[in-house]
Amino acid sequence: MKVAFGCDHRGFKLKNTLINYLESKGHKIIDFGTFSKDSCDYPDYIYPAASAVVNKKADRAIVICFTGIGSCILSNKIKGVRAALAYNIKSAKLSRRHNDSNVLVLSADLLKLDYTKKLVLSWLKEGFEGGRHSRRLRKIRKVEES
Predict the structure, then answer these.
(1) Catalytic site positions
(2) How far is Cα 69 from Cα 66, in angstroms, rounded to an integer?
(3) pLDDT tens profile 65-122
């Protein structure tokens, strides 16, 4: 799977760790930065990473900032993005099953690394259930169009 990444300075270390981890699992990565620990503004890096999904440059995206809240708000402003802020594996899986999330938003500081790796793999492996959830996604798309 091709996964786009974007983060701010707070997410820099976690982003690089997750990129190395996912590459070792055979995933292809597009890294939109940031590329240092220097203070920066998350929209400059989150927007291109999340946009890569709707522009078909990546299958999914993972974006990271201190709490994940700002990155989630920004990502969900992009038409076609269904970003999910996940603090546990169950919410990550359900975001895929029920909402067909295509952007995973992570906190750089609120989860332990080993748990975050499990959460990310769970999200990447999980499928969309369809059914009644497809009807709900169609309604979301109508809202986006209005």
Answers:
(1) 65, 98
(2) 8
(3) 999 999 999 999 999 999 999 999 999 999 999 999 999 999 999 999 999 999 999 9
DSSP string, 27-69: -EEEE----SSS---THHHHHHHHHHHHTTS-SEEEEEESSSH
- Secondary structure element (H or E) that encloses residue 104, with its range: strand 103-107
Q: Are strands 83-85 and 103-107 parallel, antiparallel or unpaired?
A: parallel
Q: Tell me what the pLDDT averaged over the chain comes to.
A: 97
Number of residues written out for the chain: 146
* Fold classified for 2-145: Ribose 5-phosphate Isomerase B; Chain: A, (3.40.1400)
SS3 assignment, position 99: helix
Location of structure tokens 């920066």: 40
The predicted model scores a pTM of: 0.97
Helix (H, G, I), strand (E, B) or coil at 120: helix
Contact 7, 34 (CB under 8 A): yes
Domains in the chain: boundaries: 2-145
Provide the β-strand partners of residue 64. 7, 106
